[in-house]
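Below is how a single chain appears once it has passed through the pipeline. First comes the sequence as given, then the structure the pipeline wrote out for it. We keep one example in the README because the format questions we get most often are answered faster by looking than by reading.
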Amino acid sequence: MANAWLLRPSPHGNNRMREFLEDNIIAIGWPGIGDLSGKSREQIKTTLSEPPYELTSLELGNAYATVDIFVNKKNINDLILVPNGDDIHFGIIKSDYFFDPRFDSDDIGYSHQRKVEWLSTKRRTDLPMNLRKSLKVHRATADLSEHYGVIKALANGEDLPQYNTSESVDTLVSVDYPLRPDFMVNVKVPRDITRTESERLGEFIKTLFFE
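Resulting structure:
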């Protein structure tokens, strides 16, 4: 089954949306670590913990999870959604991961790439609220497969399927948090969680220590 993914267009901190569209690619940063073809999640973790990045703790957990998704989890024919300001670009992945050494420098920094076919561009306001809320995740990439039907329809200019609104909450969102470099916490919360509820949850988490 195909999946759908969010990817932000700023590898190595530079907006590359123009290059993404012109060259029919998507890419992530982390220049200077070489070709990651065939590298497992653990090998990627080791690579990022060594020079030139020498990442540790939470920073390492976030980085290797993102790189592993791009290198190993995304597949040909998966859908990709790239937000750029008020524009939302939809495409379909057309290649496996590949490494382009021409862009493997600190000033360019987007050598880790995949080929895509761009399908359509929508305004952020064209998206259903459920999908718009999912785009608020603070990550370079994220799994949006729970919205696959809606993303496919938007990408292809089709009528939008209806979300199931029979539940008492506006569905759930699954949030991963790298507590340690080798341990990921998964929490499911209502998609419409309020600031007050989030603060209450934070106060509860503070009580969960056993030392």
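The CA atoms of residues 120 and 164 lie 25 Å apart.

See the next section for the split statistics.
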